[in-house]
Write a structure and sequence with these properties.
- The chain contains seven helices and seven strands, in the order ααβααβαββββαβα.
- It has a single domain, classed as C8orf32 fold, CATH 3.10.620.30.
- α2 crosses α5.
- Helix content is 38%, strand content 19%.
- The N and C termini lie far apart (40 Å).
- By secondary structure, it is of the alpha+beta class.
- It has a five-stranded antiparallel beta sheet.
- β3 (95-102) and β4 form a beta hairpin.
- The longest helix is centred in the last third of the chain and has 18 residues, at 162-179.
């Protein structure tokens, strides 16, 4: 069954396309790859990383995209994926927010990326590393991570705080450790 691609152009509760976002994205033009490059370059220039670890944990997944843009800083890959997916949708590129946990060290690491639909195929953009994987099966992200969720944004997959992320990740770890006992079934730490 063919997936309805138009679903991934919708906005989520955390990823609303406001007038200010439409104004911002009006400057990204060209083909879809050129738009992606423009968005990534804009993010790199305009969004700084929060250096205060305690603050980043406190606000992790609590802000919507407008608040992230107003604040001018991100908590890391989570906020970067939120911004990138939202801006892609605003320029007409279907985008999925993807959250994963590290296969080798699931209790301490995670990562978020975005899948975008270009030329009738899904590809992965790692907005933090500025990499594009054209072959999903061979992507670095899918090789190194278990998927915690896919959606329009983190709120769409049930993650609205660091506590939610730990709970959801711990459920995935528990399931995986039953299938593969070599996985440390320890809990996600703070």
């Amino acid at each position: 069954m063919k997936e309805n691609i138009k679903i991934w152009l919708k906005e989520g509760k955390q990823s609303k396309t406001t007038k200010s976002i439409k104004k911002l994205t009006a400057k990204f033009s060209g083909n879809d790859f050129e738009k992606i490059e423009g968005i990534l370059n804009w993010m790199d220039k305009n969004l700084k990383r929060c250096k205060d670890y305690k603050k980043a944990i406190k606000i992790f997944a609590t802000r919507n995209v407008v608040k992230v843009l107003e604040d001018g800083f991100t908590t890391g890959c989570h906020d970067n994926a939120l911004v990138f997916a939202t801006l892609c949708r605003a320029v007409g590129i279907p985008a999925k927010y993807i959250m994963g946990i590290d296969k080798l060290n699931p209790k301490n690491k995670g990562h978020c990326v975005v899948e975008v639909y270009i030329n009738k195929d899904w590809i992965i953009v790692d907005q933090n590393r500025k990499t594009i994987s054209l072959d999903m099966k061979r992507s670095d992200f899918y090789e190194k991570n278990y998927i915690v969720g896919k959606g329009l944004d983190s709120w769409d997959i049930g993650i609205k705080s660091f506590k939610n992320w730990k709970e959801k990740s711990n459920k995935v770890i528990k399931i995986i450790s039953k299938i593969n006992p070599s996985i440390n079934s320890g809990q996600v730490e703070k």
